[in-house]
Amino acid sequence: QEQMVESGGGLVQPGGSLRLSCAGSGFRFDDYSIGWFRQAPGKTREAVVCISSDDRLAYYGDAVKDRLSIWVDAAKNSLGLHMKDLRAGDTAVYYCAATQTCHLVTSEPTFWGQGTQVTVAT
User: Fold this and answer.
1) Dist CA 113 CA 64 (whole Å)
2) What is the pLDDT of residues 60-71, one digit of tens each?
3) Is 6 exposed, middle or buried (0-12, 13-18, 19+ CB in 10 A)?
4) Alpha-carbon dihedral of residues 89, 86, 74, 59, nearest 10 degrees?
5) DSSP label of 4
């Protein structure tokens, strides 16, 4: 059975950084575009970053593109995210996801995890 499990969320002070991890099973990362999206209370899903299966390039959401890095270990079906200079607006539940194309990472992910809460506050 296909599964994705996130870890690494928590409470972070403004200006701090965090690392999120994702482990996938039951499918091959190489067969999908892989990335992260987030959802804050009362807001729609927002794409954070996605690595395309077509060109293996990373596509970043406008709100975070200068503050994060992503890595993928396809052999281990694992995915990671490092974000820095965190702000209150980054508070959300973060989900890792596999999708047919990065354009669909928020609207039609094929597989996604339960999410991990990130709270940026003093």
Assistant:
1) 21
2) 888 888 999 999
3) buried
4) 60
5) E
